[in-house]
Structure formats: C-alpha cells, structure tokens
Design goal:
- The chain has one domain: Alpha-Beta Barrel (TIM Barrel), CATH 3.20.20.220.
- Helix 1 runs antiparallel to helix 11, helix 8 packs parallel to helix 9 and helix 11 crosses helix 12.
- It has 12 helices and 8 strands.
- An 8-stranded parallel beta barrel has the order 1-2-3-4-5-6-7-8, surrounded by 7 helices.
- By secondary structure, it is of the alpha/beta class.
- Helix content is 53%, strand content 14%.
- The protein is globular, with a radius of gyration of 19 Å.
Length: 306
C-alpha cells in the first residue's frame, strides 16, 4: 500500500475527520462519487446516465453487518431497488455484497437472503451481480453463486472475479464451463503475497488472460477497468477474434472517467456505470480518495470555495 493511500485511510479513521466529512462531505464533493443518500436520488442520477447512453448497476452502500436484523434490512434494500427500477423504467441492474447479507453471521442465512434477491431479479426480468470481497470469502461466495446460478440462470445472476488472486485463472475456467456472466476486476483488498500477485504488471497480465479466456469460451464478460491500456487492448482483442458486442461490456465507477465512459458509449460500446448510493457512503468515499491524489485535490478545492 502506498504511503499516500495509507495516510488517507489513517486520517479517514480519525473520529473528528469522520464526523466532519459525514456532516459536510456530500456538499463538498462526495456527491461526485456517490449518487445520493436515498434510492429516489439515485434513480434520478440513473436517468441522467441513461440519457448519455450509459447503462447502470446500482449498489446500496454498507459495510459488513453484524446482526441478522441488519442483513435483512440490506436484503430488503436490494429488493426495493428492483421495484424502483421497474417503476421508473430506467436501464439498470443491481450489485450486492454477501457480507452485507450476513455471510459472516451464517452461511445458510446469507444464502437464503441472496436467493430472495436472485429470485426477485428473475421475476423482474433483471440481473443481480454478486461482488467479490477479500480472499477468505472467495470460496463461500463462489459456492453461493453456483447454487443460485442453477436456480435462476446466467441471464439473471453474475459474479465478480479479481485478477490479482492466483486462484482466479482456475476459477474462470471452472465458471466458464457453467457459462457464467463474470465481471473481471483487478482487486482492491490488501492481500498477502501467498494468495495474490504483488506486482501490478502481473495483475494486469492476468487480467487480460482472464478476459481473453472467458470471451473465447463464449461467455459474457464485463471488463471493469479505468485503465486505458487495457481498454485499448480489449478493443483490439475483440476485433481480432470476432467477438460480438453483445458478449461483453465495459464497466466503470460513478464519478470516475465520465468523459471516457461517454466516449466509449459514443463509439458503440456497451458501458455500465457502477453507481453507489446510501447513507453509509463514508467508507466507500474514503477509498475513492485514497486511490487517487487528484480526488483529494477535488475535495480540497470545494472546501476552499465553500
């Protein structure tokens, strides 16, 4: 972890800083990365993104829960998103994290909650993607995904795979045999070198290897990156291998590289924007700041203006 990233995350953990940013952050710049605190606000942002030719996946923010009540509330929030999408007519699907649904409390309980969401996705004619978390939770996450894939089908549920994990090549091969819809990401958790590539170059090469493998297997692939080199590589790869545009999409974060998102959409590529919302936005927001110094400067400029 870089010194600047470590410094930002340490500062973000300070109680006074947390209190100040939570109170004023949305007005000072957090709204660049978070589409509001309510579902209604997020739906309005989705409408705007759709008008720009962009697709969306909505995520109700929240960290790991510690009680069954919290997990049930998170489950209901995901179900509510499907209803709001249907009522508003926006083009969006849903993303969820299993620790929000009780994975750390009880596997069976989490599976029940995730099944409710998956069945709602199928009933709504929509799609839900299970986000991948840190390495100790990978196996359980894949197991739950496989169980629900059999029940609702690949048209309604997908998974995320992280290219910095050594095991991911084997996982993509295995999931490819099931025709799984995968989002490929580099990975954002701090992992030991025993389970993850420590060198960025190896992470990037494995990323391209996983994308190529899954596309050649004829499986839908979401290429989730802001790395222009990998985006250009993907564009060349699909052209050279005759991969149809209905077999892949690019994905990026809300508030990050908006110009590039619209440019790709204008070129005829499918682009989906990961759009988070909710009152528990502070941890997500601090990670966006830690990722890139320019994001911190953006907030400081707004603070000075205010």
């Amino acid at each position: 972890m870089s010194l600047s990233r470590r410094a930002v995350l340490t500062l973000a953990g300070n109680r006074l800083v947390s209190r100040f940013v939570t109170r004023y952050g949305m007005r000072l710049g957090a709204s660049r990365f978070v589409a509001g605190e309510t579902l209604e606000q997020a739906i309005e942002k989705v409408k705007s993104l759709n008008r720009d030719g962009l697709l969306v996946t909505l995520d109700h923010l929240g960290e790991s829960v510690t009680t069954r009540e919290e997990a049930l509330e998170a489950t209901q929030s995901a179900l509510d998103i499907f209803d709001a999408i249907a009522e508003s007519g926006v083009n969006s699907n849903v993303s969820v994290k299993l620790t929000q649904l009780g994975l750390d409390i009880d596997y069976g309980f989490c599976l029940e909650n995730m099944e409710r969401i998956a069945l709602k996705a199928k009933e709504s004619g929509n799609f839900v993607r299970i986000d991948m978390e840190d390495s100790p939770r990978v196996k359980a996450t894949i197991d739950i995904f496989k169980t629900l894939l059999k029940k609702v089908g690949k048209e309604h549920i997908g998974l995320v795979i992280q290219s910095y994990l050594y095991r991911s090549e084997s996982d993509v091969k295995d999931l490819g045999e099931l025709g799984a819809n995968l989002r490929i990401v580099k990975g954002a958790y701090k992992e030991p070198k025993e389970v993850a590539f420590p060198d960025k170059r190896d992470v990037d090469e494995n990323y391209k290897r996983l994308v190529a493998m899954h596309l050649k297997n004829g499986c839908y692939t979401a290429v989730a990156t802001h790395d222009e080199k990998i985006i250009e590589w993907t564009k060349s790869f699909v052209k050279e291998n005759g991969i149809p545009k209905d077999l892949y999409e690019f994905q990026m974060l809300y508030g990050v590289r908006g110009g590039l998102q619209r440019q790709l959409a204008g070129e005829g590529y499918k682009v989906r924007v990961y759009t988070p919302y909710g009152k528990d936005w502070y941890p997500y927001f601090t990670r966006r700041i830690a990722e890139r110094p320019a994001n911190a400067l953006f907030i400081l400029k707004n603070l000075v203006k205010d």
